[in-house]
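Internal QA ticket QA-208
Title: Verify multi-chain structure generation after dependency bump
Assignee: T.L.

Test input:
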Amino acid sequence: MLDNTQSFQFFNRGPSPAVRLVFFAVLSLLLLFVDARYRYLESTRSALSVMVSPIQRLATMPGELWQAMGNFFVTQRSLVAENNALHQQHERDAALISQLQALQQENQQLRNLALLPQRGELITQLAEVVYAERDVFKRKVLINKGADANVQTGQVVMDDGGIVGQVTRVYPWLAEVTLITEKDHAVPVQVLRNGLRTIVFGAGDTSQLSLRYMPVSSDIQNGDVLVTSGIDGIYPPGIPVAKVVKIERDAAYPFARVSCLPVAGVDKYRHLLILSGLPKLPERPPEEPAAADADKGTKIKSKRKN
Amino acid sequence: MAYLAPNNPEIQRPVGNAFIALTILAALFLNGLPLEGALLMLRPDFVALVMLYWCMHKPWRIGIGLSWAVGILADVADASLFGQHALAYTLLAFGGVVLHRRLQMFNLRQQTSQVFGILAMTYAAYALVHWQVNGYIVWPYFLGCLTSTLLWAPLSILFQTMRQKRVEQKGA
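Actual output:
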């Protein structure tokens, strides 16, 4: 076998492995840099995803088939029980909804009286998780609605419990949702009990959330529910996000360590709602005057020093 | 234990490109199975194993360039950064191509220890990039390296038998 004698080369085999290694490693590093820093390659990615997505679809088939089999062999008794439970739930919900409608009406009238802008109604779109976090590192899922269903990056995704995440990347037929438990993913929230505003961050390696920069003296308790504050104009206000489960107050640190668990089934369910049509907030006023004042202040100070 | 013999006396027919492409696609499929939690952490990197196998056995056909391209596809499939898998698989292919002569002389048990080193390097490259970009390392990720190594011997035997079967079919 000629393959096994390399000491004298009869045939030109192209550049040596070391040269190739350096070339492709540098190419990879360059791509990494460009992708991490500038995100120029999104169109290439979506073009390539068209090639890869058939394989991915195929890979989700066994699981779906298993589920379908399970659905087929459900006993009649469990179906009846589930139906009863759903009926009861429906009746309770109906009562709540009629109450809610009355409150909504009242709220609208009050807001009209107070000349406050109306809260827009949320338009939702149902989507299904195609597959969940394939990478141990990441808290992301891919859903089966993409650019074809007019999904845009930045849209909020929730389930029946509360906020699940945010659309971070849109492919032709898929969209990537970053879950709120992703490391450093921030959601502006307020405590339902007393309206305390804060920001909740994902912990990354566990399915927990944490509140940072909460002063030790702040009024927060175990079991407090955190809802979105809607201050950023991205998350609609008043949707549950998390529940406080543990608070560590250590006098040595200025901030308390608060751990929370998400209210939504962040890594449980298959069906999610994409919210769209959030009301636009008015433009944030520019910050220049303040900066100019500060400049003046320093100038005056420097003059005084002179 | 014929397969464990260092030099298999049976002459192996050349492998078709279609067969290689099929194995790579199958590996991408297996990597794409929707696993969660502990199973996901223990999931071997099938693509890495298949690429290493071909780099070792057909170093002049499946080399660093193709591994890089497969890495890009894996990046798209995993929604990881462009070049993250590509860099890891480039290193993997380099290890396979450079050591192919030595690895072919070894029996499966000796191969496994060598393969562990190459895979550990691959996993480390991937984790290192992740650490550089995101600033933390998930240690359980390296469990996948162990399961991948354990899968090396079964995979080699499987591919060997598949290649021999092709010979028999063609002979008949």
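Spot checks passed. The radius of gyration of chain A is 27 Å.
Status: verified.
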